[in-house]
Amino acid sequence: MQWSYTRKYQVKAIFDDFPETVFLFRRIGDYYFLFSSRGGEYGPLPERRHYAVMEELVNGELGTIEHYRNRRSVRNLGVS
What we know:
alpha+beta; 4-stranded antiparallel sheet; 3 helices
């Protein structure tokens, strides 16, 4: 994974499994979530399970993983 900050509260990342796609993560509260992606028309398309792994990787790298794991949507579902 390669990542860099873009505008305020945003992170741009490229992952080894999808090298032709740029993923944009936005900060909401105290963690980052996948907001959009572009490129990758000729490579494999990511699935929802890939998005969850990407969100965990980015939040782990930025030190916000505990906030990501304790977000409201997960607490309401009872998922850990």
